[in-house]
Amino acid sequence: MPENWTEPPGEKIALEDLAAQAHWQREYHRILREMHDAERAGPEGAVEGETGTVGLRLPRNDVLYKVRGRARYAANIKMEGMLHCRFVRSEHAHARILAVDTSKAETAPGVVAILTGADIPPERRMTGTLTQDTPVLAVEKVRFAGEPIVAIAAETPEAAEAACYLVDVTYEPLPMILSPEQALAPGAEQVDAEGNVIGDLLHELGDAQAGLVEADVVIENEYTIESMDHCFLEPPSGLSFVDPEGVLTILVCTQYPHYHHKQVARVTGLPMEKVRVAQTVVGGAFGGKMDNSVECVIALLTLKTGHPVSAIFSREEVFTATTKRHAMKIRQKMGATRDGRLTALDVDVLADGGAYRSYSMIVGGRCVIHSGMPYRIPNVRSHYLVTFTNYPPAGAMRSFGIVKMAFALESQMNEMADRLGMSPIEFRRINAMVDDDRTIIGQKLWDVGFLKTLDAIEPIYRERKREIAANPTRNGRKRGVGLASLGYGIGYSGVRNPSTARMRVAADGSVVAYCGTPDIGTGSDMSLAMIAAQSAGISLHRVRVISGDSTKTDDSGPTSASRTTYFSGNAAYICGQDFKRQIEAAVARKRDVPPERVQLADDRVIVGNDGLSFEQACALIADEIEDICGYGKFDPDIAMNILTFSGNPYATYTFGTDMVEVEVDEELGRVEVVRCWTAHDAGTLINPTGTEGQIDGGVVMGIGQALWERCMRRDGIIANPHYRDYLLPGVKDVPFEIQNTFVDNKDRTGPYGAKGVAEVSLIPIPAAIGAAVMDAVGVRPDRLPMDAEYLYRQIAARQDRRSPTTMATAV
Amino acid sequence: MAECRYTRPETLEDAVASLIAAEGEAHVIAGGVALGILMNEKLVEPTWLIDISRLEALRGIEATDDGGLRIGAMTLHREIERSPPVAERCPMLSEMASEIACSRIKNRGTIGGNICLADPQGDPPAAVIALRATLRVSGPRGPRDVPATEFFTDLYTTAVGDDELLQEIRIPPPALNSGAAFGKFSARNAMDYGSTVSVAVRLSRDPSTGLIEDIGLGLGGVGETPVWPERTEAALRERLPDEETFAHMRKVLFAEIDPLGDDLYSADYKRHVASVIMKRTVLEAYGRAGAKSP
Prior knowledge:
The complex is a heterodimer.
Chain A: H1 18-41, H2 63-67, E1 83-89, E2 95-101, H3 103-106, E3 111-116, E4 126-127, E5 134-135, E6 141-142, E7 148-154, H4 157-164, E8 168-173, H5 180-184, E9 197-205, H6 208-214, E10 217-225, E11 237-242, E12 248-252, H7 257-268, E13 275-279, H8 295-305, E14 309-312, H9 315-321, E15 327-336, E16 342-352, H10 360-369, E17 379-387, H11 402-420, H12 424-431, H13 450-470, E18 473-474, E19 477-490, E20 499-505, E21 511-515, H14 524-536, E22 543-547, H15 564-591, E23 598-601, E24 604-607, E25 610-613, H16 614-620, E26 630-634, E27 639-641, E28 646-648, E29 652-665, E30 670-681, H17 688-707, E31 713-714, E32 717-718, E33 737-742, H18 765-777, E34 783-784, H19 788-802
Parallel strand pairs in A: 1-14, 10-34, 12-13, 16-17, 21-22, 30-33
Antiparallel strand pairs in A: 1-7, 2-6, 2-8, 3-7, 4-5, 9-17, 10-15, 11-12, 11-14, 15-16, 18-19, 19-29, 20-21, 20-26, 23-24, 24-25, 27-28, 29-30, 31-32
Helix pairs in contact in A: 7-8, 11-12, 11-18, 14-15, 17-18
Chain B: E1 5-7, H1 12-22, E2 27-29, H2 33-40, E3 48-51, E4 61-63, E5 69-72, H3 77-82, H4 84-89, H5 91-98, H6 103-106, H7 111-117, H8 123-130, E6 134-138, E7 144-147, E8 152-154, E9 157-158, E10 165-171, E11 178-185, E12 197-205, E13 212-220, H9 230-236, H10 243-256, H11 267-291
Parallel strand pairs in B: 1-3, 2-3
Antiparallel strand pairs in B: 4-5, 5-10, 6-7, 6-10, 8-9, 11-12, 12-13
C-alpha cells in the first residue's frame, strides 16, 4: 500500500471533488423530480402508466456537472505522490529493436521508474482485444511509428517528457509495408510472424456471376476510402493506484472497464480480485476507447513504484498511437433488371488493418454480413481481405466499417436508379427488405421499418427536387439533394453478448441499479434508469445507475455497436420486473396476504384496498430489505460461424434513410451541406432528446468523413497529427437544419420496443452527400473524403469531356 | 524549460532600448497568438521575451486629416473589425478582420503582431499590400516608413530590424471612384490555418469608360511570403473586367505566383483557387467602385 495514499475510494470514484460531481447529480435528481411532476401534470402525460417516463424528453443525469465544469475526467484527478508517465515511441514504421539504452534517463532529474518491454515476463507481455498480439511495450521489433517502447514515470510531466529524449533506441530498419497491395505482393516483408493477412472472409448467396449475367444493367465501380481518426476530444487518460485493501485500481476513460480488468490482471499477474477498473467521465469514444492505451503501463508502473501513476496522451499520440478507421478499397458490381429488380451484387473489399489485429476481424465479419443490406438481392458474393501494414492498428470505429460499405452500396443504388430512369426512392422501394426477408447469411428479419423511412423522406425529397429545379443556384453555387439508406445489426457480430442488471433498495426508498455497460457520454445511464424504473413501477427519481466499475457489475460487454439501449435496456427491464416481484412478495409476507394481492405500480404498493407509498413499503420491509436484489439478464441466442457464415449474427436490426441538400462551388469543387433530413426506424425512443443527439452527432461525423477527414499517411507516418491539418467540421460547417423523423415502429424484442441507434445516422451520410453532389454538378464521387481539389478535378474532367475547349485546361 | 528573461516596457522608447540591449536575442511578444503556439510546440524557446502589451500608445485607430487611417500596431483584430472609422474609410479592412480565425484570436491578436510574423497565410499582410499602406517602424535611429509592398522580404522575415518595432500602419485615403474587397478560400467554414488562399483588392474605375484605372492587389497563401503580384496588377490595369481580361489575368497570375503544394492541395490547385478568388474579388471591388462615391 503506498504510504502517501490519503483517501479510500468510495462508491464510484470518491476522490476529492468527485463530491462536487455528486452534488450536481443530487441537484439533478431534484430538478428531475420537478420536471417529472410537471410532465405528469402536463397535457401530454407519460407514455405507459403514471410512473412511465419512457418516451419523455428528460435532461440527462450528467448534464449539470458537465455544463458546470465539474465533471471529473481522468486527467483532472490528482493524488498525493502521483507520478506522471510519458512514452518513448518508435520513430520507425518497421524496424528491429537492437538495443534500448535507458541509462541516461535513469539518472535524469525527477525520474522515478523506467519500464521497458523486457521488464515484463514474456508470457504476460501481450495484450489485445480478440487476439493477444500487441505488446504492451515493443521488445523485438516495432510495427508502426508511434508504437510505445519505453514508459517513464517521473515527478512531473515535464521531467518524464525530458527523460524520454534521453533514451537511446537502436533500430535496424526493415522494409515498410504501406498498403495492402504491398502486403500481398510476393516476397513482401512479413509484418507478423503468421504472415501479412489478418483475415480473408468470403460468403456467397446464390450465384453472383449468374446474377450479373441475368441483369439488364450492370455497373462497376471502385471506391477508395481513407483512414480516419475518432477525434474524441478527451485523449486517453488514466490513473492507477493501490487502494488501502491492496487492490490495484485503474481510473480510466473507457468503453469497457471489464476488458481492461482482465488485461491488467493478465499483464500484472495479479489475481482478478486484486484489480479494479473504474470508468471516469468519458469525453468521446466512438470505438476508440476499447483497446489498451494507458491501462497496462500505468498499472505496471504503480506496482513498480508503489505510487499512483497518471498518463494522459497528447493529441499527437492520439493520432499516431491509437486505433484508426480502416482505409479501404471496395470494388463492386451491381446488376439489375430494367424494371428495377436487383439481381446481383459482387463485392471485394481490400482493407488496411495496420500493425496489429485489434477489431479487424469484427469489422470484416460485419462488412460481409451487411453486404447488400437493406435490400433483397438474390445473388450476393462478398469478399473481405484485410492485411497488416506498418501504420497504426485499424480497429473499431462507429459502424465498424459499414459507413464505407454503405458509401459503395448506396452510391451504386443511386447510380443504378439513374441508369434505370427511376427515382432513387422508387428503386429502393422495389428492393427494400421487409418482414420475413433474409439477410445474405440467412437470418430472417422481423419488425423491419425500412419502407416507412422511405415513406417519410419521399415527400421532402419531392418538394426539395421541385424547389431546386426552380432555383438551381444560390449565391452562384449549384444546389442538389441526395439520399441514402442503411440497415444495421445491433450488438456484437455473431457471438453471444449478454447484458445483466441488478437492483437494490435502501430502507429510505432509494434504489441503485447496477448496469454492466458504461455510459460513455451517450446518456445511457439515464435511459437505463428510465427503463428500470418503469419496469419496476417506481418513480424515476429514486433510481441511480451505477455502471462502468468492473467490481460493481457483471461483465456485460462494452458500450459499443449500438447495443446498450437494446441489450442492457432489456436487462434493466427484466431486472425491474424481478425487483417488483420481490418487493411485492416481501410486503405480502409482512401483511400476511397472498403475493398476488400486492401490486407495485405508480410508485405505490397496493395491498388489497390499502395503498402504501414506496417509502412506507420500504420501511415496512426494512428488516429484510438487504435481501432484495432484482436481477435481469438478457442473452439472446446469437451465434455465427465466421468461416461458414451460418447462424443468426444479430439480435435485431435498425433501418433508416438520410437526405442532404448541398451547395457546390462548381469553379472550386467546394461543397457545403446546408440541410439534412433523417428518418430512422429506431423502434421506441426511450429518451427522444438523447436519440436526437445521437442522430445529429452521426450526421456531423458523416459530413466530416465525406468532405475533409483523413489521416494523411506518408512513408509510414501520420503527417497531420493535430487539428490544424486534420480537418473536422466546425460549428459553421454543420447544416443550419437537421430535421429528424422517427417512424412508428416497435421492435417486439426490444425494451418497450426500442432498437439501438447510436451509430446508424452516420452510415448513409457520405453516400447521400455524394448523390447530392451528383445532383448539383453531375459528378459521382468515388472517394472519401471528396475534398475540394478532388471534386474540382472531377468537375473539370466532365466539362472537358463535354466541350474540350473550355476552362480547366489551364491547370 | 530554459530560463527566459522577461521585460515589459511601458513606453516605445523603453521597448527600443530593450531591443538594443538584447542584441537580436529577444522575441517580441504582442498578443502571443502565434508565439504562444510556437512556444507550446517547443519550436521556439525564447531566452528573452519583450512584452509590448503595455504600450498603449501603439494601440488605437485614428481617422487622419487626409482621409486615411492610422492604426496602431497593437490594435486588436476585433477593434479593427468593429471600428466605425475603419468601416467608413476602408470597409475592406473590417471585412478582412472579421474573417480572421475566431473570436478568441480576434480578441487577443494584434494587427502589428500578425504583420510582423509575416506568415504567408496571413490576411492582414495581403490587405496592407493591396491598400498600399505605409508601415512606420521605430528604432534607435528614429521612425522610418516602409511601403507595405516592400515590407515582406523573405520567409517569415520583414524589413523590421532586430532593434526596431512596428509602430503603426498608415492606410492612404481611397481614390475617387474606388472600391475594395477581400476574398478568402479555406477548406471549411470553420477556422482554418493551413491551405488557405486570400486575395485583397483595391481598385478605381474610370466613370466614363468603365476601365479599371488604378489597382492594388495583395495575396496570402500562395508563396513563401505574403505576395504583391505586380505583373497581375498590370494585367488588369486599363482594362474592363471581362472574360478576356480574366483569362489574361489568369495566365499572368499563374506565372507570377509560386504556391507550395501541401498534403491537402497541390500547387496547381492553389493557383487555380487564387485566380478564381481574384476574379471574384476584383469583380466585387469593381462593383463597389461603381456603386458609391469615395
